[in-house]
Amino acid sequence: MFAMRVLTLDVNGDQQETAAPDHWTLLEILRYRLGLTGSKQGCDKGDCGACTVMVTDADGQARSLNACILLLPQLHGKAVRTVEGVCGPD
Ligand code: FES
Questions:
Q1: How far is 35 from 1, CA to CA, in rounded Å?
Q2: How much distance in Å is there from the Cα of 38 to the middle of ligand 1?
Q3: Which atom of ligand 1 is nearest to the CA of 46?
Q4: What string of pLDDT tens digits covers the 90 residues of the chain?
Q5: How far is the first Cα of the chain from the last one, in angstroms, to the nearest whole number?
Q6: What is the pTM for the complete model shown?
Q7: What is the pLDDT of residue 31?
Q8: By CB neighbour count within 10 A (0-12 exposed, 13-18 middle, 19+ buried), where does 67 fall?
Q9: Residue 32 and residue 66: Cα distance in Å, rounded?
Q10: Side-chain half-sphere of 6: how many Cα atoms within 13 Å?
Q11: How far is the CA of 27 from the centre of ligand 1 (A)?
Q12: Do 17 and 5 meet the contact criterion of CB atoms below 8 Å apart?
């Protein structure tokens, strides 16, 4: 049995509150908790880039990162922008 953690994430400019197991990646949260399926699950090990999101630090520095290898503690104080946040949900 895995512990669930309630978390608040800044995704596409909205504060999203959800609960997920500690070991889930950002990609799993985006797809299976928030319904944001624009970031794809390809290799699931950081090689293909199908899951790429933009992550902005508190100081405003933005980087593209692979969501499939990002764990929740790595996102503290950061904002995430997915393809839906760039192009809209359709
Ligand atoms: Fe391939 Fe994330 S799914 S890099």
A1: 24
A2: 13
A3: 4
A4: 778 888 899 999 999 999 988 889 999 999 999 999 999 999 999 999 999 999 999 899 999 999 999 998 788 889 999 999 987 655
A5: 36
A6: 0.90
A7: 97
A8: buried
A9: 16
A10: 1
A11: 9
A12: no
Torsions phi, psi of 73, nearest 5? -60, -25
Q: Is 52 in the pocket of ligand 1 (CB under 6 A)?
A: no
Q: Assess whether the C-beta atom of 41 lies below 6 angstroms from ligand 1.
A: yes
pLDDT score for 4: 86
Q: Is the CB of 66 under 6 A from ligand 1?
A: yes
Distance 28 CA to ligand 1 centre (A): 12
Write the CA distances from 32 to 11, 36, 82, integer angstroms.
14, 8, 14
Q: Collect all residues with Cβ–Cβ distance below 8 Å to 87 and sequence separation of at least 6.
A: 38
| Residue 46 CA to ligand 1 centre (angstroms) | 4
